[in-house]
Amino acid sequence: MTENLSDNKYDVFLSYSSQDKSIADTIIASFEQVNIRCWYAPRDIQPGMDWAKAIIYGIQNSSTMVLIFSSHADHSQHVLDEVNFAISEEKPIIPFRVENLEPSGALRLHLSSRHWLDAYVPSWQTHVDRLVKIITAILKGGTSPEEETLVPPQRKPAIRKRRLPVGVQVLAAMFGLFVLAAVGTGIYLAVTKLSHRAASSATPPPSSSLPEISENSPGSVVAAGLEISENSPHPVIATGLDGKIHLTWAEPVSGKWVVQYISSIDSGFTFSQPVSMNPGGDPIAQQHPAMVLHPGGAVQIAWEENQNGNWDIYYASSNNGTKFSQAVQVNGDSASSNQIQPAMAIGSNGAIFLAWQDDRNGNWDIYAARSGAAGSAFEPEIKVNDETSGQQVTPVIGIDSQGGAHVAWASDSSGTWAIYSTRLERKVFRHGLVVGSGLMFDLSNQLPSLAMGSGDSISIAWANAYIREPKYNALLYLPVYAVSSDAGETFSDPRQVGEGYSHVSTRAPETGLAVGEGSIHVVLTTYSPRDGSLVWYYRSDSGGTFRAGVMVAQAAGGDAMHTPQVAVDGNGHIHIVWAHQRGNEWDVYYSRSTDGGANFSDGVKVSGRQ
Predict the structure, then answer these.
(1) pLDDT tens by residue, 199-226
(2) Are residue 479 and residue 365 in the same domain, yes or no?
(3) Domain that holds residue 538
């Protein structure tokens, strides 16, 4: 887009930290003395006007942005938000550097290719006149001699560390990824679909992005910025009151993906032989398991299964994990529709809730069913969402102390992917509440995870796309979370998991979430060409700030980590499982921490042992 600079109401939007206001006032005075029209806060924000809306208005109606770059600005969230939005609006940005330092975090990514006006020798005041001449030349569409003296910032070599911060490395590498992807294969940015192909007789409306169905691609996700292979293990981990560790996942057996289960009674040092959910070896395909533990210790597993050309939800249980009951179909829909991606939760009384994706209505909806007797008989399913258009995908579920079910999912029914949450009341789910509406830049939200905490608090983590990089049309994502302390009536403003913009990614971060003893535990995946694919662990003991992240695992080259999950046992030991992709091959790995998450054991491969 080529903008006519003369069409804007203002010539310059000034971005700065409030601690640099004296510099800002001097620059504004110098600009306005020569009739350069300026917008800057708080002067130009009308009384009663929403601050964020005022900033957006100022940037949209200004021809250029001048950024007063200092150590204060480098750590200012408001400055970063303004730069992000200016980039999305394709505004010219002139960094006016008043301290001899390099940008860090996301600012390094956004400013590394721009020219600077160094204004710290001998002092910033002597450079204001040059800045005035440069802005005047830009507004006239020409290049002044002063403009030609602008220089790019000097870059210092990145230092690789096992613990954060590594955000500078990730962000710099991500910029290289954009270039390589645009030149080589192009950046794949689907507007969330699921990669099932063939088998559904439902005819979606023309505007629908209903995925196709395939016998060999159950439950896989291709979300905006995230690409998971058509078949993947989707591992799940749980810990019992007795300290026993339980794992389930899907892996190929004789050409079909089959759900497997193992356990450990010695804190993950050794594991039992796998038990298959398809013991007869029938030619069926299973995928995407979910698992909960009955208060009495019984293992409950659900999965999606393709027996007759379409996918259904199945359930089985075991008292000791050595032999499972005959699998029963949970969903009552007998038409050629598909039920996939089950999520499961269990109450303190043993009642089970299952939620899943369902395309019986021609687009993806969320349905749920309840069993009051540990899965022996499920009640007829009910529709969770009340939207009649768009796609509702990737459900997660939890049960509070009163036995009430809480469900969250991603939906594009409003035109933008958002996270919705609802709860069951008198056998009817309430209208879904949008979680994360406090985000200033909210382009897409994907892949929620959910955990119930003390006092029936609800924690939800997900991937938020906060900006679209205009040159390569790529969404940039961050992992965020929000908490409800009033049974889902309201949620806190979203907070970022981690420090600064360490986990900016073109792939939506996949998160796993656990809550116990007042602590929130989050695992997530990141990727950069420099560092490869990684699994990180974060912990918050206050529900607010997270500790520094700990790298659990790293894969080099083209390998990728996916779908991490976390569980905490009664001794406070932390157990993590994830899927490791090598081309078309997948494995499942396990790691543990016995010191509260400060250190983790090397990952141990637990799959491929049937």
Answers:
(1) 222 222 222 232 333 333 333 333 333 3
(2) yes
(3) 221-605
